Amino acid sequence: MALVEITPSEYDVEIDIVYATDRNFTGAPIYTRPACYLHADAAACLKKAAAMAKRQGVKLRILDAFRPQEAQRALWNHSPNPDFVANPDFGSPHGRGVAIDLTLIDQNGKELDMGAGFDEMHSRSYHGSELISRQAEANRLLLLGIMVSAGFEYYDHEWWHYQLPKASSRYPLFSDSALAEPMMQR
Length: 186
Prior knowledge:
The protein is an alpha+beta fold. The protein has one domain (about 5-180): Muramoyl-pentapeptide Carboxypeptidase, domain 2, CATH 3.30.1380. About 25% of the residues lie in helices and about 15% in strands. It contains five helices and seven strands. The protein has helices at about 10, 40-55, 70-80, 135-150, 165-170, and strands at about 5, 15, 35-40, 60-65, 100-105, 155, 160-165. The strands form two sheets. Strands 2-4-5-7-6 form a five-stranded mixed beta sheet, with helices on one face. The two termini are about 20 Å apart. The mean pLDDT is about 95. Its cofactor is Zn(2+). GO terms for molecular function: D-Ala-D-Ala dipeptidase activity; metallopeptidase activity; zinc ion binding. Its EC number is 3.4.13.22. Keywords: Cell wall biogenesis/degradation, Dipeptidase, Hydrolase, Metal-binding, Metalloprotease, Protease, Zinc.
């Protein structure tokens, strides 16, 4: 299978899959199992990013990665806002295993200020927003530099979202059935 499991020990990251909790914009868990998978190509880029972050004295905290098509449909049904939620009829880079939502944490495990929360559907979340502090902008620029240098590209409206280039033309969509152990209730 093209999807590989991302573990904290192998990738030197922290994992907090928000959609397996009620701490997401729907207010309810979307996944029944908090798991983190990426396509092998994205996993290789993640290893590079984690090493760069470590050299800068920070660590990556992954909030979401592979998102089954069933989960994408649930998010869209809750909030059909194309600026922040991909229409599942067209597919999402998350559904291809080549997108990752993440932030930076310091040596004590505290999230760096990014000026807007994860999945905050507001213009404060845009890259280049002038509605955030200088420190939040510096933290976003650090994350941006790490991720782009590792081979990802960014999505303009979400400071937390990175994906491999040309995702829709290079990678197939996966459903929850692609996993040996499901993330969604079947």
